[in-house]
Amino acid sequence: MFSYMRIYIVLLLLCTAFGCIRFSVTVENNNKVDSKSTVCTEDYVIFYSSRTGNGDLYQLNTSTLEAIALVTNDSTDGSPRYNAFQNKLHFRSNRENAPYLYELDFETGTEKWSILNPAGDEIPDWSPIENKIVFTKTEQPQLHHLVVRDLDSNENDTLITARSDFYPSWSSDGQQIVFEYSDENSSADIGIINADGTEFRIVTNGTSYHGHPAWAPDNEKVIFYIYENGQADLYSISTDGSGLTQLTDTPDNELIARYSPDGARIVLGGVIDNDWEIFMMNADGSNRTRLTNSPGFDGDPVWIRCKP
Question: Which CATH code fits 3-304?
Answer without folding.
Answer: 2.120.10.30
